[in-house]
Amino acid sequence: MWPKGCHFVVSPQMANVMDLKPEAVLRLRGRVQYWAERLSLRPRAVRVQRMIKKWGSCSTSGTVTFAADLAVHEDQFQDVVIVHELLHLRVRHHGKLFRALMGVHVPHWRTTSRGKARRGNAEIASTTGGAVN
Ligand SMILES: [Zn+2]
């Protein structure tokens, strides 16, 4: 089940970003639902919008945002980004605990993130200890 009271918001400008199919967005939504349940984490809202420098972000108010073009990536990479952002609801920083939790839930996270760094200091890249780029 989709987390109760959690809004799923797809930015209207998203269609301009790329030729995103509704099925792709639904697939991404399904992965978010799966992980929210599995991690017992409940974002206040989940947004999909245009993001250039990051694949995702997590606000202190509990809103998790994903880059629209994440929707066209394979499940494995989506999972890394989704788990990363959802875990921020529990652990704000990329410390030892955060990396340990990533290792438990998405053991492939380091190799999967390789080569997928966003321009500049990509959020996901910053936790991989320079394994990207
Ligand atoms: Zn992060």
Characterise this structure.
- This protein has 133 residues and is an alpha/beta fold.
- It has a single domain, classed as Metalloproteases ("zincins"), catalytic domain (Zincin-like), CATH 3.30.2010.
- 41% of the residues lie in helices and 13% in strands.
- The chain has helices at residues 14-17, 22-39, 75-87, 96-105, 109-113, 123-126; strands at residues 7-10, 45-49, 56-58, 63-67.
- A four-stranded mixed sheet has the order 1-2-4-3, with helices on one face.
- A hairpin with a 4-residue loop joins β3 (56-58) and β4.
- α3 packs antiparallel against α4.
- It is globular.
- It starts with 6 loop residues before the first strand and ends in a 7-residue tail after the last helix.
- The model is unreliable at 128-133 (pLDDT under 50).
- Residues 84, 88, 94, 123, 127 line the site of zinc ion (ZN).
- Zinc ion binds at residues 84, 88, 94, 123, 127.
In brief, what are we looking at here?
With 133 residues, the chain is of the alpha/beta class. Helix content is 41%, strand content 13%. The protein has a four-stranded mixed sheet with strand order 1-2-4-3, covered by helices on one side.
